[in-house]
Amino acid sequence: xxxxxxxxxxxxxxxxxxxxxxxxxxxxxxGLFPAxxxxxxxxxxxxxxxxxxxxxxxxxxxxxxxxxxxxxxLSVRDTGTCPCEPAETHLERRIAEVTAEIARLEGLRSQLxxxxxxxxxxxxxxxxxxxxxxxxxxxxxxxxxRSVPGGGECE
Length: 155
What we know:
Number of strands: 4
Oligomer: single chain
Largest sheet: 2 strands, antiparallel
C-alpha cells in the first residue's frame, strides 16, 4: 500500500464515494468489505482497492440491489471474473419488483384521487373510509356539517 492510498481513513473513503463512515463500517460488519489494515493507533486505513470496491457497492445500491445481491456479485468479482452474468438474474428480479411496486403505487394514486374527488365534491361516499369522520350518537345537525353514512359528520 502506498503512502497516498494508505492515508484513506474511513471518513475520507466515505467522503469520496458519498456515504457516511457508518455505511463503510456496516458493509465491513456485513462481510461486503474486508477488514482493513489498522494504523498503530487503531484507525482503519484503506487502499485503492477499497475505493474501487466501495464504488462498486454504491453503484449496485443505486441500481436498487440489496446487500445480499451485492454480496453475491462481489463473491464472483473477487474471483477476477466479471459478475455480468450473475448480475442479470439479480437485475431481472429487481425490475420485476420495481414493476410490481409501480403498479401498486398507481393503484394507490387512483384510490387517493377518487378520495380527493369525493372530498372536493362535498360527499363522503365510497371510496372514502367509513371512519373518515367519527360517528356521533345520534347524528348532530350543526347546519353546515355534512351528514356521513354511519352517523358521523364532517365540518
